[in-house]
Amino acid sequence: MGIETWLNKVKHSITHSFDSVHPVKRSRLGVLAFEVAGIMPKLTHMWQLLSEKNMARLRNESITLEGVRKIVSTDDTFLLSLACAEMVENLVVVSKSVARLSKRCEDSHLRSFESLLDGFANTGRDPHNWVLGWKEMEARNKKMDRYVTATSALHQAIEGLTVVENNLKKVVNHKSDYTLKQQKIIDLQQKLHWQKHEIKCLKDKSLWNKSYDNVTSLLVKSIFTILSRIKLMFNINHGYPASLPRSLSASATVYPSVDTLNSFNFVSGPLAKSAKHQEKNHMSHGFFDINSKILKPSSTSLGAAALALHYANLIIVAEKMIRSPQLVGLDARDDIYSMLPSSIRVSLRCRLKGIGFSASDPVLASEWKAALGKILGWLSPLAHNMMKWQSERSFEHQKLMPKTGVLLLQTLFFADQQKTEAAITKLLVGLNYIWRFEREMNAKALLSCGNFKNVQKNIS
């Protein structure tokens, strides 16, 4: 019995030492690599938007756009809160995808990612030290970029393999000269071999063969770090950890104070709330809930009326017509009129009533062109931003990395409906005049040309 016990101990010792040298192979990411490769660029993009340079641009440029000040808000606190809330909301969307992945992790802490993130957002508690330092996060971003590049190459290589396999099947089944057929088969088999070899190499370089838990940990830590950075850059004071050792310039810290989170002056109507109500609101709702509510548009805004995108299209069409009124035909004029909602049609009829049919004053036409240029100068950027913002979030582009840093506050979404419609009406009144002016000038030019030809004919 003593010998058997000793042998069992030796066996256990050998097995333990073997496992330590050759650890159990953890699950690999496999085909989920392509889903993760779609998440990583979004995280790196969010991180880049939180740089000091971009935060300074937000403070000094984005919220000071003339169009934003005219029809969205003049309150810096409100505008900055919109920027902060949208960044948080974008992070929440990505975190939901990561939460689905984390459920399959072997690490119990990673499986609890969703609840831990919520706790971190509300209290600043980071029990597993998932918030990274600035330099470490920068290094992780570079690593993610390499993974994404290799995984994209792997996807292309797999598609290429499918093409080669299909071509090989066609050649095998095709009736042709035996010698020529054999040569084609040999060439394709050789190409198939190299394609498989390339895929094998790319699987090692890409996310495909990476540990499921390790990759998920990378995503989780990135989300925690980005959220911490958001709180730091926007000076949100409820419990963020001091784990980002990077000096900040005064212009980079843009958020005034969490205590004024709901005390905004919106052009569509005041949103100021009592201190007692604010305190109750913060106690009853979490950080993510509060930011989500900030993004809810006012009842008097274009976003609430679901008109932001439609008006953006209308403004862009009007802009093209104003720049080239001589190219606008009757059909195009009818088309833009058909785009108008009833509120603008009524306003336009009132403005055009009593103007008359003649538009032959070059001085007035010049004044209208100057006035329309000024309106388009501040209104057009918001319309184009609206189209860019919508395009990046369309179904076809959801898996692509955003190419612009356009925020909702820079679009028509939060714009006051009444003020926007007044500006559009003025554009259309001016367009009506310069369009008729161009037509009258062209008609006079043609008439003069016809008279000149008749005079020449009579003389000859």
Q: What is the CA-CA span between the terminal residues?
A: 136 Å
Stretches where pLDDT is under 50 for at least 5 consecutive residues are: 9-25, 239-284
Total helices: the number is 17
> Got a strand count?
2
Q: Percentage of helical residues?
A: 55-70%
| Major pleated sheet | 2 strands, antiparallel
Task: Assign an overall shape.
Answer: flat
Order of helices and strands: HHHHHHHHHHEEHHHHHHH
User: What share of residues are in beta strands?
Assistant: under 5%
| Oligomeric composition of the shown chains | single chain
Q: Structural class of the helix and strand makeup?
A: mainly alpha
Mean pLDDT: 81
Q: What Rg is obtained from the alpha carbons, in whole angstroms?
A: 32 Å
Give the spatial strand order of the biggest sheet. Answer: 1-2
Protein topology:
Layout: H1 2-21, H2 33-49, H3 52-60, H4 66-71, H5 76-102, H6 108-111, H7 113-123, H8 134-173, H9 178-205, H10 212-233, E1 265-266, E2 269-270, H11 275-284, H12 287-294, H13 308-323, H14 330-338, H15 342-352, H16 362-392, H17 417-459
Antiparallel strand pairs: 1-2
Helix pairs in contact: 2-5, 2-8, 2-10, 5-10, 5-12, 7-10, 8-9, 13-16, 13-17, 15-17, 16-17
Explain the overall architecture:
The protein is mostly helical. The chain has 17 helices and two strands. The chain has a two-stranded antiparallel sheet. The protein is flat.
